[in-house]
Amino acid sequence: MDALYIILTSSLFAISCGILGCFLVLRKMAMVGDAISHAVLPGIVIAFLLTGTRDSFEMIIGAGLLGIFSTFLIEFFHKRAKLQTDASIGVTFTSLFALGVILISVFAGQVDLDQECVLYGEIAYVPIDLWITESGQNLGPRALYISSITLILIILFVRVGFKQLYITTFDPAFAATTGISVALWNYLLMGSVSMTTVAAFDSVGAILVVALMVAPPATAYLLTDNFKRMILITCIIAIVISILGYYLAVLLDGSIAGAVVTVAGILFAIAYLFSPSNGILFKKVIQKKEAKRLSQETA
Q: Distance of CA 240 to CAs 115, 146, 243, 284, 296, Å?
């Protein structure tokens, strides 16, 4: 049963991250998830210092506020200071992350909190982090509820705003001429990324969140040129890496998060080499056949 809880939680978070990651990859903003996952560190520390508890709700609130704030900072530096997107991301997340490390260092002797605790998480603890009511009823793993609610919210957001997200992703200039606010939908997307990152942060850790937001969409991108199909393939890959990653970790007696990311990397490498549309080896075979055909025609 523990294995089912871990795989299910990982799959739900992976699908949520992957759906949003499809938009980020196509917008060339894939590392925004990495920026937010590190930039929320001060929010986690401040929330702990104010409440004196490491309960998920307080952590999510604190990290969520910093995540949204970091999103606005990235956009501000990009639009107002005329920095490139990657530069604004780098300045924002390194500065906020450093602030969080300083806060932890200053209060390290007074609080039971450290960098490793808030950065890496541990999905293996999902089965023992239970939601127990005041009456003592055990409702199951808390992360399972958080991941389910997160996925539902992401699906609703994408379903309602798919047209606007689609147009602003592929042709922002056309979107602006049709009256669609590119900035608004960009902020809404970044807010959703922030919420998802923070929700998954406590259960699976920052490293796995970043991988789930980039690797499955990037793999799907190599396998199809159809956007809706790309989202579907991303969801399938998210489930596959969660299952195979868990059993690889059991086989090697290693980190589950590390195993999931490893499987995601292997699938990406396979797609990179053998994809029918974009695979390197497949392209070489096609080129050789085309060259042979042309040589025969000219002979």
A: 30, 21, 5, 28, 44
Measured at the CA of 22, the angle between CA 150 and CA 82, to 5 degrees, comes to 105
User: What is the number of residues in the chain?
Assistant: 299
Does residue 257 sit in helix, strand or coil? Answer: helix
Produce one character per residue of 269-297: b if its CB has 16 or more CB atoms within 10 Å, e if not.
eebeeebeeebeeeeeeeeeeeeeeeeee
At 132 the three-state DSSP class reads strand
Q: If we measure between CA atoms, which residue out of 111, 85, 125, 149 comes closest to residue 205?
A: 125
Could you give phi then psi for residue 168, rounded to 5 degrees? -70, -20
pTM of the model: 0.84
> In this structure, which amino acid lies at residue 175?
A
* 255 contact partners, CB below 8 Å, separation of at least 6: 249
User: Is the Cα dihedral 103, 99, 142, 216 positive or negative?
Assistant: negative
pLDDT tens-digit readout, 46-70 = 777 777 665 556 666 777 777 778 8
Distance CA 243, CA 238 (A): 9
List CB contacts of 34: < 8 A, sequence separation 6 or more: 93, 206, 210
Separation of alpha carbons 150 and 153, rounded Å: 5
